[in-house]
Amino acid sequence: MANGNKNKRTNNKKKKRNAVPTPVNSSGAASNSPQNEEEYDATRGEMRGRPRPQPQQPQQRRSEGRTRNSSGGLDSDRDTEDQVDTMLRFFPAQLRNDGSRSGGGIQSPPGVTTPTIYHQLYKSDGQTLNLKAIPFIPVMAGLGVELNESGFQPEERGGLLSKLPQNPWNMLQLLAICFDKSQTNKKNKEFHELADTKLCDVLQKLVEKDLLRKGDILQQNLVMALCANSYAMPCFPYKRFQFLVQMDPTALMTPCLDNVIGSHPYFFTNPLLFTSQQH
């Protein structure tokens, strides 16, 4: 009997020597999670001594998510026109910016409201076209006309003809003349052609919604504005040019009378001159 008790005590001592120590946290309480690789691998008979990776905190993951989508706002890769339509019908005040929200490189002076569609053209740097937000401009303009709660007057046409403070161009004109000004895309011909395509698609949708009309081509000097600003563009916007000229070919022969770009006749007489590069 005595030998049995002695053997039991010997076995207990061996178990204690081989036992893995229980990790203790900063409060002195036992912790179930090993804090480094040495403790973690001891359970498997391995002693590496490297810190064990800690679980990523939720706040850190949210921060990284904002970095991946740093431009914020609408995203055609994620949002749909139906979703935007539904959201704005519930919150029509979002169709106007009262200065409390920035975006698109446009800062609204305090107390001055601007159409939210202006903030969809560019990203926050005011230089890079926001190709993921531009496709939603027709939806927003259409609701600006339809919903009385939007606060637009009929002559503003949902914000398309509204004037920005210290900006001579309205939205219809900006859609014709805007281009990416960033150094990143300066020599990226593919990007500029894609931008021209997306902006031309916006013009087409505005026509389908009767928000862009044949009379606007001359009244808003869209063709002349495009041509007069093309000198600064990395690539000539062929698709927009052809689309506008096809809507009203007389724009090529009508003198331009504009307070911004001056008064002179159009210097283009044959739209075929601008198709050679596409063939």
* CA(first)-CA(last) distance: 104 Å
Major beta sheet, strand line-up? 1-2
Q: Give the percentage of residues in beta strands.
A: under 5%
Along the chain, the helix and strand elements come as: HHHHEEHHHHHHEE
Helix content: 25-40%
Low-confidence runs of at least 5 consecutive residues? 33-47, 60-71, 263-279
Structural class: mainly alpha
Shape: globular
User: What is the CA-atom radius of gyration, in angstroms?
Assistant: 32 Å
Number of helices: 10
Q: Summarize model confidence as the mean pLDDT.
A: 76
Give the strand tally. 4
Most strands sheet: 2 strands, antiparallel
In a nutshell, what does this entry contain?
This protein is mainly alpha-helical and 279 residues long. Helices cover 38% and strands 4% of the residues. It has a two-stranded antiparallel sheet.
